[in-house]
Write a structure and sequence with these properties.
The protein has 292 residues and is of the alpha/beta class. The chain has eight helices and seven strands. The termini are far apart.
Length: 292
């Protein structure tokens, strides 16, 4: 059984949630310009047509609407990211917030995820549905209460994926959002706390590293880049966590949940960058050894 087929059989055990943090409307815009992160090459064969098919879907539904791409972030209306999600989480999300590394609203699409210590790929059909859904939010469409609508909060495919929706406020009680807020507050705190010492440890390691080989120096430069990204992501995670705490004081549990979830997501990104630092330093050491 190949990995893709296996993941479909395991899909019934996976929580696949579509999430949106507000909307920005482009109802009066003729063109929505996207900055699209380059998809990893090993995924292009399976998912390379997803974004084109999703934009064509909305262009056909909305006469006069056009999607375009740019290689300059500052010229974009929205950024499209391709992601790998570790553990349970969102298959995709859209956020109009600009307090991120791009300074732009962001639509993130998850192509693969780890669950039960195994790597699973989302099916191309599932990724297409998620991409359509998040682009719908990007052009200003809210959630739909119709389960057959692409803007319904969750998407089912023919394998009957189990659902556990993150529904908008109208579909949940204050107690529901309070519980979710506390859950992500705990996850964010648990993830953030060890990051400061880990980053300090990596900085000491980087400061002590020195190589003569040009290839090793390039790897060290990549490690430093990952370090600064880790610092950036941690800073955003801490700031967003603080904002969530202020909202808790106002008993605004829906928005505090959003902030704590965002804080947790950025903390996980910082974790990934810290892991990359180790990988780049090991690569630099290996290259330096080969040149001796």
């Amino acid at each position: 059984m190949d990995l893709s087929t296996k993941s479909r059989h395991l899909a019934v055990m996976s929580v696949l949630t579509l999430f949106c943090i507000g909307t920005v409307s482009y109802a009066n815009a003729q063109t929505v310009t996207m900055y699209v992160e380059k998809m990893p090459q090993h995924w292009q064969g399976q998912y390379g047509d997803v974004l084109t098919n999703a934009t064509q879907y909305w262009e056909a539904k909305s006469p006069g609407l056009k999607f375009d791409t740019t290689q300059i972030v500052d010229k974009a209306d929205v950024v499209v990211e391709w992601a790998s999600q570790y553990g349970e989480g969102n298959l995709g999300y859209y956020s109009p917030e600009t307090d991120n590394v791009y300074g732009k609203p962001t639509a993130a699409i998850t192509l693969g995820f780890f669950e039960d210590r195994e790597w699973h790929l989302a099916s191309p059909d599932q990724v297409l549905q998620v991409t359509k859904h998040e682009l719908g939010h990007a052009i200003g469409l809210p959630y739909s209460v119709d389960p057959n609508d692409i803007m319904y909060p969750t998407v089912e495919d023919y394998e009957s994926w189990q659902q556990d929706s993150e529904l908008p406020p109208a579909f949940n009680t204050s107690a529901d959002w309070h519980a979710r807020s506390e859950k992500y507050q705990g996850l964010a705190t648990e993830t953030i706390l060890p990051l400061v010492s880990k980053i300090d440890e990596k900085q000491s390691l980087l400061n002590a590293a020195s190589y003569d080989s040009l290839a090793a120096k390039d790897a060290l430069s990549d490690a430093w880049t990952a370090f600064w990204w880790a610092k950036k992501y941690l800073s955003i995670a801490e700031e967003t966590q603080y904002d969530g705490g202020l909202l808790v004081l106002q008993s605004d549990y829906y928005n505090s949940h959003i902030k704590f979830k965002s804080s947790y997501d950025y903390a996980k990104k910082a974790e990934q960058k810290i892991s990359q630092i180790t990988e780049y330093i090991e690569k630099a050491d290996s290259l330096a050894y080969k040149n001796n």
